[in-house]
């Protein structure tokens, strides 16, 4: 691992002037004693490497050979002293808050969240002190991972893109749910219904054009998680107001895959809407977080 740079935050794939391709990882972790970068292969096997460099509490490093599609997370070491708010626990794999793609879901399968995802011993017999006892079980099998993506993708979708910039006085805004809008649309191929590609389909865009819509406001499309109380009832979060990654498009809305392909599909959707003269507005609510 090379020192890398503290900016930008997140995982950034790049090819250096020396021709070496790899990914720079940068994570802010104020007060941490050390940070481990954890890389996962397709079978879930983990390889840990310490981020040795720290600049203004941003831990960073460049790893040659790490390419788009690589799944990763972090383990952060530090004090465990809940009475002062210190809850460092390296047994818990952390999702990069700046990840641009996320693969996997919270919990290995439907049902209540596994106790291992909690930093404290949730099932401690003395409940009045349960949240002060550190849980040493590994959470990695039960939590989503970040995915390294290519900044520009295989083609430069934005080279000649133009935002419609419709004046507010002339705007007609249609609020929609990416999954619900095309879920039963007869003109959209069945395999694309309920996805970003489905919304980008000519049948869906044509419907918006006939309505005179100038902008779509998308209900939450950031990566979100299902709440524990819903999972216990066999239900799922439909609306998406439970974000875990504000820089990553929700992977379940992608028809093309969850290994970073969701980013390209989302970009192509935006480009198709722009080409039709339709602006794209995102519903972003920072207090609706799954933290």
Q: What is the residue-averaged pLDDT?
A: 93
> Cα distance, first to last residue?
30 Å
Assigned CATH class of the largest domain: Mainly Beta
CATH A-level architecture of the largest domain: Sandwich
Whole-number tally of structural domains:
2
User: How does the major sheet shape up?
Assistant: 5 strands, antiparallel
- How many distinct helices? 5
Q: How much is the radius of gyration in Å? A: 21 Å
Anisotropy-based shape: globular
Topology, please?
Layout: E1 10-15, E2 21-28, E3 34-40, E4 46-50, E5 53-55, E6 58-64, E7 71-77, E8 80-81, E9 86-87, E10 102-103, E11 145-147, E12 173-176, H1 178-182, H2 196-199, H3 202-211, E13 215-218, E14 222-224, H4 228-231, E15 243-249, H5 261-275, E16 279-282
Parallel strand pairs: 12-13, 13-16
Antiparallel strand pairs: 1-2, 2-6, 3-4, 3-7, 5-6, 7-11, 8-9, 10-11, 14-15
Q: Could you explain the architecture of this structure?
A:
With 291 residues, the chain is an alpha+beta fold. It folds into two domains: 10-147, Sandwich (Immunoglobulin-like); 168-282, 2-Layer Sandwich (Transcription Regulator spoIIAA), CATH 3.30.750. The protein has five helices and 16 strands. It has helices at 178-182, 196-199, 202-211, 228-231, 261-275; strands at residues 10-15, 21-28, 34-40, 46-50, 53-55, 58-64, 71-77, 80-81, 86-87, 102-103, 145-147, 173-176, 215-218, 222-224, 243-249, 279-282.
What's a concise summary of this model?
By secondary structure, the protein is of the alpha+beta class. The chain has 2 domains: 10-147, Immunoglobulin-like (Sandwich); 168-282, Transcription Regulator spoIIAA.
């Amino acid at each position: 691992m090379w020192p890398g740079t503290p900016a930008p935050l997140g995982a950034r794939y790049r090819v250096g002037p020396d021709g070496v391709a790899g990914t720079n990882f940068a994570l802010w972790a104020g007060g941490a004693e050390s940070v481990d970068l954890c890389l996962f292969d397709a079978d879930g096997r983990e390889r840990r490497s310490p981020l040795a460099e720290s600049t203004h509490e941003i831990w960073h490093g460049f790893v040659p050979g790490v390419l788009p599609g690589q799944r990763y997370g972090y383990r952060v070491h530090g004090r465990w002293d809940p009475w002062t708010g210190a809850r460092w626990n390296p047994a818990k794999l952390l999702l990069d808050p700046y990840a641009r793609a996320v693969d996997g879901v919270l919990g290995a399968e439907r049902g209540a969240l596994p106790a291992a995802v909690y930093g404290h011993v949730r099932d401690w017999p003395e409940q009045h002190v349960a949240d002060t006892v550190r849980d040493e079980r590994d959470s990695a099998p039960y939590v989503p991972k970040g995915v390294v993506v290519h900044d520009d993708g295989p083609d430069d979708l934005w080279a000649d893109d133009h935002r419609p910039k419709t004046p507010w006085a002339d705007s007609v805004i249609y609020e929609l749910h990416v999954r619900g809008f095309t879920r039963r649309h007869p003109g959209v191929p069945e395999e694309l219904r309920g996805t970003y590609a489905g919304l980008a389909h000519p049948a869906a865009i044509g419907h918006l054009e006939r309505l005179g819509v100038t902008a779509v406001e998308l209900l939450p499309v950031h990566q979100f998680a299902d709440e524990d109380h819903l999972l216990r009832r066999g239900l799922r979060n439909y609306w998406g107001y439970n974000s875990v990654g504000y820089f990553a498009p929700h992977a379940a809305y992608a028809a093309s895959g969850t290994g970073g392909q969701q980013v390209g599909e989302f970009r192509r959707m935006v480009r198709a809407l722009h080409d039709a003269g339709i602006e794209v507005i995102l519903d972003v609510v920072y207090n609706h977080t799954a933290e």
